[in-house]
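Hello Y.,

Per our agreement to keep a running log of every chain we model this quarter, I'm adding this entry. I've kept the format consistent with earlier entries: sequence first, then predicted structure.
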Amino acid sequence: MAHPFRALLLLSLLCACGPAADPPAPPVAFPVAVEPPPPPLPPAPLPPDYDSTAWTELVRLDSSFALDLRYATDSNFMKQQIYDCGRCFYRPKVARALLAVQQDLRSRGLGLKMFDCYRPGPYQQRLWDVLPDARYVARPTKGSVHSRGAAADLTIVDLATGEELDMGTPYDFFGEAAYTTTTDLPAPVPENRRILQEAMLRHGFSTIRTEWWHFNYGGPRFPLSDWVWACP
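Predicted structure for the entry above:
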């Protein structure tokens, strides 16, 4: 008969040789949401390179103004470049009035395209040197309302497409078809001219008889200026 102590020892050895316990499960790793970095800030606009108390660059008020400054190219009735580069400036009060016109037209999906804005005295002289005809170019000694920063040559465009509305003639067309008093015009020209004239008149501008595109601001009479903007 086996000794009771030996039986107990044998039983403990048998138990010790049993299967090992399962290792503990690794901790569950939950995904951590990583927020993307914020988009970079747009570059700060450069400070104006002109006296902003005397002048306003129109596109700084609203970038939706279209510019087609013809005298900064040779795409004009003189076939010569007159301006060293094209920028559109106005007296601040005139610029704000044009902004009001732009906002007015935007409700119809329309906007302004600028053909000529402020015209410095030296550039007026260049025009006169090429075409010394007071029917079309103001004498430099008298000066143009453009040289006072208060005249605009412009048209209307569709903001979605950039296409000009049909005004019957191109810019700087010299003939009765361009007169604001001419009514014998095919549709939709009379309606398009009416939209332009009413929008401009509503915000303080007046038109002239011979050019559907030309408007003078009816506010204070600003002095003639020889200031010339810088070119980039």
